[in-house]
Amino acid sequence: MKFRARLSNNLPRLLLIPSILISLVFVYGFISFTVVASLSNWDSFALDLSLREPWYQTYIELFANPRFQIGLRNQLIFTVGFLALTTVIGLVLGILIHNVVLAKGFFRTLFLAPYALSFIVTGVVWRWLFNPETGVNLLLDVLGINSVLEAIGVGPLKPGWLTDPSLVLTVNDALGAAFPPLRDMGLQLGIPVAMIPIIIAASWQVGGFAMAMTLAGLGTIPEEMIEAARVDGASSWQIYTKIVIPNLTPTIVSTLVILGWTSLTIFDLVVAMSGSGPGFATEVPGIFVYEQSFRAFRFNSGAAASIVMLIAVSAVVVPYLARAYRNQEEGS
User: Fold this and answer.
1) Which backbone phi and psi does 55 adopt, to 5 degrees?
2) 259, 86 in Cβ contact below 8 A?
3) Peptide bond into 156 cis (omega under 30)
4) What distance in Å separates the CA atoms of residue 114 and residue 124, rounded to the nearest whole number?
5) What is the DSSP letter of 28?
6) How far is 274 from 277, CA to CA, in rounded Å?
7) Which of 29, 163, 315, 321 has the greatest number of CB atoms lying within 10 Å of its CB?
8) Which residues, 6+ apart, have CB-to-CB distance to 306 below 8 Å?
């Protein structure tokens, strides 16, 4: 009887042992191996895990690599644009569907459906749409917008989209004066035109997820609070800016953290739409890792870039999880 009671008490812990072992090997074990590889001389197909001198030399070379610098710039641009656009889409769609009377389930399904697609499928379709000879450019011709622009003496709108390596809203002069190291790097700081379609495509696919999160948050706001505000004479704008949006702050933060992880690890969508793009205009760290590891066989450089990506993701996710755990402990 004592054995059965002891087994019953310890059964949950015993069931967790296989998961713990798998995590130790396939998560933390592989992370440790990647760290060792990033500090080693493994820069060819032959395995060489001997430590470099100095041990951080790979990271120095990595951050001095112009291609990796461009990848970090593009990653920052993509993350900011993707998070901003997706959050706005999610808020707008969530609020509209929350207030719709008829076919609410239909609209929820309609806008959430793209989230079920893979980024590869999304990338292929949006690459067709942003092809210079079809898609958006063809629509400008069909609608007659380009004809109107030509009639008033303005050239037709035929942007290269994914084939345009130029930057818009460059800030090199301002930032170069404030931070001379940025100027010395020679990196052009601005928004690559070729990244804009990728941001739009990613936001289109994931906007439904942000909408679902918004709907979940709206469901937690007491209707009595909104009705009381209406009785006090508050307008719809005041209700949403003073009550709804502030109460959605925890939902918005959760959405930003989840989408931030997605944006910092983006790879397949960019590969499907443009790869590294013209002049590395759409290069991201994920593509750099793949190219260095599996084409150039510079495994130490690829591993170092992977660790940088891991640190970036951890900087977003770990504080959020720590705060959530702390709040849970305080609540209990």
Assistant:
1) -65, -25
2) yes
3) no
4) 14
5) I
6) 5
7) 163
8) 34, 38, 289
Neighbour tally for 192: CB within 10 Å: 25
User: What counts of helices (H) and strands (E) characterise the chain?
Assistant: 18, 2
Tokens representing 277?
């793009």
Spatial separation of the C-alpha atoms in residues 163 and 277, rounded to whole Å: 7
This prediction has a pTM of 0.87
The single-letter DSSP state of residue 168 is E
pLDDT in 10s for each residue of the chain, 332 residues: 566 777 677 777 888 888 889 989 998 999 999 999 999 999 998 999 999 999 999 999 999 999 999 999 999 999 999 999 999 999 999 999 988 878 888 989 999 999 999 999 999 888 888 876 666 666 666 556 666 666 676 555 666 778 888 888 777 655 555 556 655 555 677 888 889 999 999 999 999 999 999 999 998 888 888 888 888 888 888 888 888 999 999 999 999 999 998 999 999 999 999 888 888 999 999 999 999 999 999 999 999 999 999 999 999 988 888 888 888 777 66
311 alpha carbon, distance to own chain's centre: 15
- Cα separation, 281 vs 94, in Å, equals 33
8 Å CB contact between 199 and 78: yes
The CA angle 260-262-263, to the nearest 5 degrees, is 65
Instruction: Provide the residue ranges of all domains of the chain, joining segments of one domain with +.
Output: 24-57
Which two tokens mark 105?
């389930």
Q: Which pair of tokens denotes residue 103?
A: 């076919």
